[in-house]
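Backbone-to-sequence.
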């Protein structure tokens, strides 16, 4: 039996089975890995995520288990309180909507960028000290598995080599997909981090390289300085560039897969 969702599934009925007094349901058209719906009720606002394929169905279950284990552990920011649900053996998640804007959409002053960079570094340091109660893969292993999703586009797994080499130098627990869209800011402060589907062990430079590849140039110096101060090390620029090349390739191939298989997804201008 298929354990993921397709566009033909009746999401509205599934949502109404889970929530009462639904006022509105709006689908987000930019969900790369899940069908995403923002649902308003008389008592609040909720986010539903329905995985698009088997790979991300497994990732969603892993994410829910990880966040449930964290519970009230102090990471300095809010985390989504995911509820793992099933519909005909297919997993999906529900969580309360977190107010704020993603870092990719927020307009910030100089001093706010400096403060948020510090918040991010503090979060990464706190996350690195968490010890999950169940086994998690290395990021390179996770990306090797993800490559099979877009294999029809001639995926060259050798492009992961810089990440594999970096991970041989040491591993820490990482978010795995720390891009500006997963960082929620409000009033010039980082208030939440979302989407832990890629949570895994990797190089100390993995998350920061991922974020530097996608953030504004004006944010780079603040992030590097804050990261170096918190982790008490110097950023290896050469390694950062090598890791960025890995992520750029992963995104390029997955975008090709999306264009071929999910024309309903509206990609950001820099990926379209």
């Amino acid at each position: 039996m298929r354990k993921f969702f397709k566009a033909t599934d009746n999401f509205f009925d599934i949502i109404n089975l889970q929530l009462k007094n639904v006022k509105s349901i709006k689908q987000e058209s930019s969900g790369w890995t899940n069908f995403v719906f923002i649902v308003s009720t008389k008592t609040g606002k909720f986010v539903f995520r329905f995985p698009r394929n088997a790979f991300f169905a497994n990732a969603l279950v892993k994410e829910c288990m990880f966040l449930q284990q964290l519970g009230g552990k102090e990471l300095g920011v809010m985390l989504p309180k995911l509820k793992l649900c099933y519909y005909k053996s297919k997993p999906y998640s529900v969580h309360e909507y977190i107010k704020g804007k993603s870092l990719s959409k927020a307009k910030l002053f100089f001093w706010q960028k400096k403060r948020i960079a510090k918040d991010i570094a503090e979060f990464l340091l706190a996350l690195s000290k968490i010890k999950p109660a169940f086994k998690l893969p290395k990021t390179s292993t996770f990306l090797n598995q993800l490559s099979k999703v877009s294999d029809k586009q001639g995926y060259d797994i050798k492009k992961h080599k810089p990440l594999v080499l970096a991970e041989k130098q040491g591993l820490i627990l990482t978010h795995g997909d720390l891009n500006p869209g997963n960082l929620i800011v409000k009033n010039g402060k980082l208030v939440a981090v979302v989407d832990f589907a890629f949570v895994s062990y990797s190089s100390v430079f993995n998350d920061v390289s991922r974020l530097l590849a996608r953030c504004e140039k004006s944010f780079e110096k603040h992030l590097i300085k804050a990261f170096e101060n918190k982790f008490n090390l110097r950023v290896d620029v050469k390694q950062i560039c090598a890791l960025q090349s890995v992520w750029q390739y992963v995104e390029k191939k997955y975008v090709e897969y999306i264009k071929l298989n999910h024309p309903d997804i509206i990609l950001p201008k820099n990926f379209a």
